Amino acid sequence: MQEYNNDYYLAQILQQNMRYTEETGKTKKCLTHTFGCQMNERDSEILFGFLTQMGYERTDREEEADLILLNTCCIREKAESKVLSELGELRRYKQKNPDMIIGVCGCMVQQEGMVNTIRSSAPHVNLIFGTHNLHELPRFIYEIYTTGEKQIEVLEKETGVHEGLPRHREYPFKALVNIIYGCNNFCTYCIVPYVRGRERSRKMEDILQEVRGLVADGVVEITLLGQNVNSYGLDLKDGTNFAGLLQELDKIEGLRRIRYMTSHPKDVNEELVKVIAASQKVCHHFHLPIQSGSTAILKQMNRKYSKEDYLAMVELIRRYVPDATITTDIIVGFPGETEEDFQETLDVVRTVKFDNAFSFIYSKRTGTPAAKFADAVTLEEKKERLQRLNDTLAEISKGINDHLQDTDMEVLVEGPSKNNPEMLCGRTDGNKTVIFLGSPDLIGQIVKVHITEAQTWILKGTLL
Ligand code: 5AD
Ligand code: SF4
Q1: Less CB within 10 Å around the terminal CB: N or C of the chain?
Q2: Are 86 and 147 found together in one domain?
Q3: For ligand 1, is residue 86 a contact (CB within 6 Å)?
Q4: Which of 359, 380, 403 is the last residue in one of the domains?
Q5: Phi/psi of residue 27, each to 5°?
Q6: Which pairing describes strands 285-287 and 257-261: parallel, antiparallel, or unpaired?
Q7: Distance from the CA of 334 to the center of ligand 1, in angstroms?
Q8: Are residues 265 and 346 in the same domain?
Q9: Which atom of ligand 2 is nearest to the CA of 184?
Q10: Whose CA is nearest to atom 4 of ligand 2?
Q11: In terms of residue numbers, what domain contains 336?
């Protein structure tokens, strides 16, 4: 079912862009700026895929771009203010180049009232679309080309699963693969279910076919994406589930590593852990957002597990996968969080000994239930809790990493190290970052590295 005709729009735009090149000797250039999570990164691959088909070339310089697209995030207030301030800055480029297309898409615009906020605070924006009609980018650009009018279209509800969209991948050796869209969990602090809609799984065969194609293309590591990958398949009502998908993916020859993001602790069960333990390819890395260690706060968050449930799950993982690395997300300063509640979080952190964690100060999101909860904790106190939490996490991570010193680890080489481009940077099966000296020819390969130095968040080593 395809009620839009992208091929037509794409061909028309390409023709116009080619004519532009003939007339001016220049190629149309585009810039996409992605905020937020890997879901957005994956969506931007589609957007950039479309733009490439339209004949646009990529640029990193705003001043030479003919089209700028911001793919936005609204998980916390900070993400949103970054977008709004960037939009303000883009005004001067549009003044210099009035034909420039400035677009805003993604999660932020799905929020009630946001389209109006953008329209009034950034009138130079001439394209706004949401997460549910990303696949219609060609039509929007075509309309702007032919009518010159602003295109503003945000759909309130999800529109199913769209297969066969183009993509432009950043890395030849690793790839993001959507398996389920949306979220049904409604954690009380979280905006995601309101901006990404209800859970929709892709058909298992479509996923397998995509991964087989990626592997044939040279991909050795895939990351399966979903707001809650554990719900995968349940809406298909044909017996498909996440464990079954992992088993099928495991059989794909040439694929070396399977990762996934994100797992909900309430849905981790023995069957899944056993499948992961028995798998040749699923990485022994469990990212399980705990959010808080206080059962009372977890209840307020609507997380559907207690502190004890979480600890029991960690025990289950350690029993079947003794070398598992476990990472998490933690929110401090949720409305009503007392010092005692926070101490419960620190207690879980010390008991589990997380390898790493993303820690956040609670950010009030309008439209979520928690936005109406009484919040007596001051920002100062929240910042202080975050600092104490981060100090605890760092100390634990250093202790774990110290134990890895003088061991040999398999590392997928990802590219030059950001801080030291002379060195290579890669990741272990457990998702630890390793820095070492080696030839750039190794990028994309899995190599063995002897760990010589353990730091708090990274390991240094020598190539074997
Ligand atoms: N405030 C702070 N952190 C949040 N997260 C989600 N919503 C909020 C919020 N309102 C965090 C959670 C989630 C991660 C992706 O972002 O920890 O796991
Ligand atoms: Fe947000 Fe909870 Fe859904 Fe994760 S599971 S996206 S935290 S509502």
Answers
A1: N
A2: yes
A3: no
A4: 403
A5: -105, 140
A6: unpaired
A7: 10
A8: no
A9: 3
A10: 227
A11: 284-403
